[in-house]
FAD-binding domain-containing protein
Amino acid sequence: MGFLGFIKGFSSVYRAKPRIRAYPSSCQHGHCHIQCRTFSHFKDHDDSVLPVLIVGAGPVGLVLSILLTKLGIKCSVLEKSKSFSHHPQAHFINNRSMEVFHKLDGLAEEIQRSQPPVDLWRKFVYCTSLTGPVLGSVDHMQPQDFEKVVSPVCVAHFSQYKLIRLLLKKLEDLNFLICKPEGLNDEPFRGGELLMGHECVKINATGQSVNVTASHLKEGKYTERNITCNILVGTDGAASTIRKLAGIELRGEKDLQKLVSVHFLSRDLGQYLLNERPGMLFFIFNTEAIGVLVAHDLKQGEFVLQMPFYPPQQSLDDFSPETCKQLILKLVGQELSDIDVIDIKPWVMHAEVAEKFVNCDNRIILAGDAAHRFPPAGGFGMNTGIQDAHNLAWKIAAFVKGIAPSSILHTYETERRPIAIFNTALSVQNFRAAMAVPTTLGLDPTVANSVHQTITDGIGSILPSGLQRAVLDGIFTIGRAQLSEFLLNEKNLLGSSRLAKLRHLFEEGKSLQLQFPAEDLGFRYLEGALIPDSDCVAQGPPTGRRRDYIPSSDPGSRLPHMNVRMLSNSFSEAFISTLDLLPGDKVEFLLIIAPLEKSYHLAVAALKVAEEFKVSVKVCILWPTDTVKGAETRSKTALAPWESYIDVAEAKKSSNSFSWWSMCQMTDKGAILVRPDEHIAWRAKSSIDDDPILEMKRVFSAILKV
């Protein structure tokens, strides 16, 4: 199915512009009772009403709570689990997410210091066993990935539970309290609390608030607690309670694959792989078992084994710790004495996106896995969620602070939902690429799934369950026989042909990919809190291949990275990224100009209009490397009496490097206005000949929806 066909699978929700419909006075889904009426700016007049309540304390909810707290917005978090999971789960953090973390008081740098050395995880290895013949390997890191030319940070391999520990520490540094049910009183929430063991069971949205009922176990009894908030954000995962209570449906492909995930420790295995064949993922195919091993940390010997799962013929009882140990040994190819199975979980792979991300007059919002469920191929799940939070935080802050009306919140859906649909398609495409390897070896997963479907729902369904299981096992055993060393070798005509096709698959980049720089850094919002250029073209369909990121100043794009040198007296030798010119702790826009007379006039107009709109703007005067003499004096004179500006100079790596304006494919007569989330809101490709005051009023009105 092509890209457009995949997109149409999301039904009527695929439209260039969002569809808003009125909701009835009550909802038939769960306990949700919603009465929607339009409301204006947030008024912080009632201390008993919490500005923002976040449900779900995974990476997305925690990142959102940190971003909001840094922006001065009171929020609290509910988490239904009594403690945080130690299952590694997601582990690849892409460039854009690391840029978000870079702004969270150096979180990206902490991750880079704590993660395994990159040489231990840069490869995917394909083999018949972990100690047997290697069928091929793919190195997913290229020299430019370490040069920090397109980004101030690099990608990372860091288990989710370790990331959560660091995020919790960041919250505690912001004076957040981590609370257990037994330590609570009945006082209203003031913001700054993370409540463990609290499950949302009911939402009632009326007037200007959302009433949330949370259930928790206290002194052996379940107790309900009511919380009133102005904005409710569901970051509660793929099985989101908030999504279900709000009656929001998912669209896309269900049940792509069922799997069992086995979390285990083995320092002996870790040490062997570290010395002999280090990698991040190991795809293992032999006559006794098939699985994918995720090496979360070779030094610590921490792994997760993923194996296909075929219920109802198979049940979770078939994967006892002892059975899993035996399967691990079959995939390893030799004895290990220190295997410690920690956890065994079934899970289902889906490719779905919520039909809406924002509900009920912009007061109930979904983010992360609550809004979209991807195959893990390419690691887009957690990363897309983190970028959801980054897009949403400044908009919530703008609304709560009275800078923008509630309609600014709907631009979150307008911008992020098309990205989620695109990333879903890319993840599915990458998953299909992963399946190309077993298919080349004679084990087409679609055939296996069809056989399973026939036995479950077709002619095989008349057989007793025990016989169904025996038939399924027998067919799979015959299929795996194609992986025998007798067949799969260079001397066998069929085996040699399959191995040659496999090598071609790896060389052409047609197997599972890890990095997608063009999509990671180059995604662009086409409409929303921005003014699109008339000549901008939509992003093409995903290719499933790695493509280089090309810097762009098109509205909706992430601001390109370039190292610049600050020219103030106290920081004359300080180098920072252009992305660091936005503070992260205030709703502030950045206007980038060259030191030209008309551009200074535009900057003064922007500062005047921003004051009228009660929004913060900082002007960045970006000087060429060789013309910085007298920069501060000139800018001070041109912008007086305004002091919200900074002079910086390009820090080109070589004389052959592009200048800033060339990299942005603009002339220095233009200007770029950047949002608090580092995405470009508006640009002028050339100088503004009309009244700059009127132009900036038009710009801020369109962006802030006022």
